[in-house]
Design goal:
Chain B: Its main location: membrane. Chain B: Belongs to the binding-protein-dependent transport system permease family. Chain B: This is ABC transporter permease. Chain B: InterPro entries: MetI-like, MetI-like_sf, UgpAE/MalFG_permease. The complex is a heterodimer of chains A (271) and B (299). Helix content of chain A is 69%, strand content 0%. By secondary structure, chain A is mostly helical. The longest helix of chain A has 32 residues. The relative contact order of chain B is 0.13. Chain B is an all-alpha fold. The chains are: A mainly alpha (271), B mainly alpha (299). Chains A and B meet through helix 1, helix 3, helix 4, helix 5 and helix 10 of A and helix 2, helix 4, helix 5, helix 6 and helix 7 of B.
């Protein structure tokens, strides 16, 4: 009994802000009284969504978020599969060194890289306000390399021997034998990789100063820090934007919730 | 000639030279995005580095520890490091407590496990920028929290109160990240041998007693991991002070070192000073992680 009270209270504390975010995004007049917890039918509107769309252009922002996220996922999967496969199944000079790098990179903290990456990418390579500049530091995810390596290691050796006897080359074996078998890993990596760039704020915020290049997290943050104070119903529009930003991830998470396993959650986090 | 080379290549490059090709993108990426910037950061922090017009060759003289002296002599930076210490003192124990209690409760729950897992995990997968929005709403002067508290509401309100701004951020981050650590504890709980609980109950231990004498010690390795990861996340704090307290306010009471790195390095054009803050921050985090591990594992 006490267990259910603790769990129920915990769930309420975790979920309530999301419920309140949604209710708040529909309020015509900002209402913060205790009764505002229940929606007031006379005070409901979709106007806040129109308002935020006018201020930050949701279409462009969502497109930029999509390009950023899609680019990161594509690079993470392609380069992760290649490197993971090589590390798990191939014998080549320098394999130990590459694996050492994989382990080392995981302990390098991003704070230390922030300023030099900014200097290099913005000042050095001139990639400010470009999709490439936003994607670049996230393009290869070491955790994904690691996850793919683990999955390829688990495949039985006989499979590969049989393919080699049939005369298939290494690339062909990877493409037609190994890859179809690690499809579950592929889904997990895609789902977990999605969260990182979609939610990422600091790096795209540094790189994109032009409004039409900003992903939604950045344009919404700029709205919060610059515009909100002067709007008629600042919280309504802000919460409407927050709902638009949160909805895709929450939807994906609920739909695929059993694929989010504790052991490889770290992939979604820049580390 | 080609035949000879093909025959000799494998012994030189290993049995599957194609592996080099497959790992090449990763190695190049690590060199460009990790290794070079890492060295660059340390180099920058010992030189007088400033932004110059593109193509211009400028001298960037070695200045020894000058940048570090500037950083340590800057009250705003010292304040930011103090703030992150306050943050960690509140955030880390709170995160451990929430995650541990809810994971243990969830582990024994029979009904509604899927719903509860989703509920606890949703804040973790949602963008900080989005949930910061609703916390701003909840903790504003006229917000729901103050409405519920009535006359007990703090004055000045939470986010503009020098004493409360950092604690609110610490609670916010604990709330947001606990879901991840609940799952981590949940996985660790599966490895606690049942016999330990049986032995405890034979010895007459109640639920509370076996929580403290069996569960908590058995989960110590997981707790070390939670503490280290939460410390690293806390040291990276940027979005919350930037948005929730309007750029680390009031009066820098919630500024974090990474926020200072942004202000000094990008806004004020002092990347060398910002790099020095970064180096000091990383040294601090590494030292703290080692200390935590030693303290928690020693007992």
């Amino acid at each position: 009994m006490r267990r259910m009270i603790v769990l129920g209270l915990g769930a309420l504390l975790f979920v309530f802000p999301f419920y309140y975010m949604f209710i708040g995004s529909l309020q015509a007049e900002p209402d913060t009284t205790v009764t505002s917890v229940l929606p007031d039918p006379g005070n409901l509107t979709l106007g806040n969504y129109a308002e935020i769309n006018e201020k930050v252009n949701l279409g462009t922002s969502l497109l930029n978020s999509g390009i950023f996220t899609g680019g990161v996922i594509a690079c993470t999967v392609v380069f992760g599969v290649l490197a993971g496969y090589a590390l798990a199944r191939l014998r080549f000079r320098g394999r130990g060194a590459v694996f050492g790098i994989v382990l080392l990179v995981q302990v390098v903290p991003f704070q230390l890289l922030l300023i030099p990456l900014y200097v290099l990418i913005v000042r050095g390579y001139g990639l400010a306000d470009s999709h490439l500049g936003v994607i670049l530091p996230f393009a290869i995810n070491t955790t994904a390399v690691f996850v793919f390596r683990q999955f390829f290691l688990q495949l039985p050796n006989e499979l590969f021997d049989a393919a080699h006897v049939d005369g298939a080359g290494e690339l062909r074996v990877m493409w037609s034998v190994a890859l179809p078998l690690v499809r579950p890993a592929l889904l997990t990596v895609v789902l977990l990789t999605f969260i990182g760039p979609w939610n990422e704020f600091l790096w795209p915020f540094l790189i994109t100063k032009q409004a039409d290049m900003q992903p939604l997290a950045v344009s919404l943050a700029n709205y919060i820090s610059n515009v909100a104070g002067r709007a008629a119903n600042p919280y309504g529009a802000l919460l409407a934007g927050a709902c638009v930003l949160a909805a895709p991830v929450i939807g994906l998470f609920i739909a695929f919730q059993r694929h989010f396993v504790s052991t490889d959650i770290g992939t979604g986090v820049k580390g | 000639m080609t035949g000879l080379r093909a025959a000799r290549m494998p012994s030189l490059l290993g049995r599957h030279p194609v592996g080099l090709l497959l790992t090449a993108p990763y190695v190049v990426f690590v060199a460009v995005v990790f290794a070079y910037p890492l060295g660059f950061a340390v180099w920058m922090s010992f030189h007088d580095y400033f932004f110059a017009a593109p193509g211009a060759t400028v001298e960037r003289p070695f200045v020894g520890l000058e940048n570090y002296a500037a950083v340590l002599g800057d009250p705003a930076v010292r304040r930011a490091f103090l703030n992150v210490a306050i943050f960690l003192v509140i955030n880390v124990p709170l995160t451990v407590a929430i995650a541990l209690v809810l994971a243990v409760a969830l582990n024994g729950a029979i009904r509604g496990r899927t719903f509860l897992r989703v509920a606890f995990y949703v804040p973790y997968v949602t963008a900080s920028v989005a949930v910061v929005g609703v916390w701003l709403f909840l903790f504003s002067r006229e917000g729901l929290v103050n409405q519920v508290l009535g006359p007990l509401a703090p004055d000045p309100s939470w986010l503009v109160n020098e004493a409360l701004a950092m604690p609110v951020i610490a609670v916010f981050v604990a709330w947001k990240q606990s879901g991840f650590f609940i799952l981590l504890y949940l996985a660790a709980l599966q490895n606690v041998p049942r016999e330990l609980y049986e032995a405890a109950s034979v010895d007459g231990a109640g639920r509370a007693r076996s929580f403290w004498s069996v569960t908590v010690p058995a989960l110590r390795p997981a707790t070390v991991l939670v503490v280290v990861l939460a410390t690293i996340t806390g040291a990276n704090l940027f979005t919350e002070p930037y948005l929730l307290t309007n750029g680390g306010g009031p009066n820098g009471a919630s500024a974090s070192p990474v926020l200072l790195m942004y202000q000094r390095g990008v806004e004020q054009g002092l990347p060398d000073v910002a790099a020095a803050i970064g180096v000091l921050l990383v040294i601090g985090v590494v030292a703290l992680s080692l200390l935590n591990r030693r303290l928690l594992e020693a007992r």
